[in-house]
Write a structure and sequence with these properties.
heterodimer, A: 86 residues, mainly alpha, 52% helix, elongated, B: 246 residues, alpha+beta, 8-stranded mixed β-sheet, 32% helix, globular, membrane (chain B), transmembrane (chain B), transmembrane helix (chain B)
């Protein structure tokens, strides 16, 4: 039943806390942009770019889980959730 | 809502509820299933046979849906949705959410659509012997979101990526302006499906454990809703002091 394989995964605990400050800076910027710009129709320009670059750089160093890193590398891929019928 | 019947579903069991709509917290569930699967695997190893054991391809799915109306405009509710995991007070209530990290984002500047992918790490403690077997008590989930600012819709889909060989939990949420009061209210629709694979013979035992999961899920739903309502009120107060209408 794959017990041994499961044990091998035991180190997959991911802690990205070293990136907490950079994450907070990005989230603050994002939330402000979302409420004040994006929702008001000003979606032509991406903002928070420097915050994102720093945060992402940190994440790429600290994300141990390969499944998660894969998503990080796939930046730019549009992943559309399957819609719930209205 | 509940008509989205998966053709693979062997034992459809649906619960409709208007009690709550949360943001995704159901990833706590899988360890319960793992527990039941573990018991089953032990039974198989000792030569125990259940009737119908040959149907190894079958999958048991449990699906349920919920709806909730927020008496806040769509813009405020979706802003709250982005913030709910980060706020310190919410962290206390949603203490099983360990980390939420944005893995990528993409803005389609022509159509006004925003796509993001986030990783959500959840603490899902179980009995000590289960931790021993599974080797972990955290679960990683990936949440994909698309917000369409033109049509005012937000859709989120969250799946577990840990323990996938035992169970798949998928939660879909969408926020739309409420048809009865589109500028003031928001309707949240949520669907959750739990798919156990592939030992369908496990079904009868899993059924009981699953009921516990549903109860757990509903407790978490109430927590998630509480957090969203609180966040909306906070944003409402903030916007009236800043003169910004979100």
């Amino acid at each position: 039943m794959g017990f041994i394989r499961d044990k091998r995964n035991s180190s997959s605990s991911t802690t990205t806390s070293p990136c907490a400050d950079l994450r907070a800076a990005y989230n603050n910027c994002f939330n402000k942009w979302y409420s004040d710009k994006f929702l008001k129709g000003h979606w032509d320009k991406e903002e928070c770019v420097s915050e994102w670059d720093k945060y992402r750089d940190c994440l790429s160093k600290h994300l141990e889980d390969k499944n998660l890193s894969h998503f990080l590398e796939a930046e730019g891929v549009k992943r559309i959730p399957v819609p719930i019928s209205k | 809502m509940a008509q989205n019947v998966d053709p693979e579903r062997e034992h459809p069991d649906q619960i409709s509820s208007t009690r709550g709509c949360l943001g995704f917290l159901s990833c706590q569930i899988p360890l319960f299933f793992v527990f039941s699967l573990t018991l089953f695997s032990l039974l198989f190893r000792t030569g125990f046979r259940f009737p119908g054991q040959g149907q190894t391809q079958a999958t048991m799915v449990k699906a349920y849906s919920q709806e909730h109306t927020y008496k806040h405009p769509w813009e405020r509710v979706t802003s709250a949705s982005w913030r709910k995991f980060a706020d310190p007070e919410n962290k206390r209530i949603l203490s099983h959410i360990l980390e939420v990290d944005t893995l990528n984002h993409n803005l389609d500047s022509k159509s006004g659509k925003l796509y993001t992918t986030r990783a959500i790490t959840i603490h899902a403690p179980g009995p000590w012997f289960l931790r021993k077997i599974v080797g972990q008590d955290i679960c990683h989930c990936v949440e994909s979101t698309v917000v369409d600012a033109k049509t005012r819709s937000m859709q989120l889909a969250t799946k577990n990526i840990s323990l996938q060989k035992y169970v798949e939990v998928e939660e879909k949420i969408r926020y739309d302006p409420h048809p009865e009061n589109p500028n003031e209210w928001t309707i949240c629709r949520q669907e959750t499906s739990i798919r156990i694979k592939p030992l369908s013979t496990l079904a009868s035992m899993a059924e009981k454990i699953e009921q516990k999961c549903v109860e757990k899920f509903q407790q978490n739903s109430a927590k998630g809703r509480e957090v969203m309502e609180r966040m909306c009120k906070y944003l409402e107060a903030e916007s009236s002091s800043r003169g910004i209408s979100v």
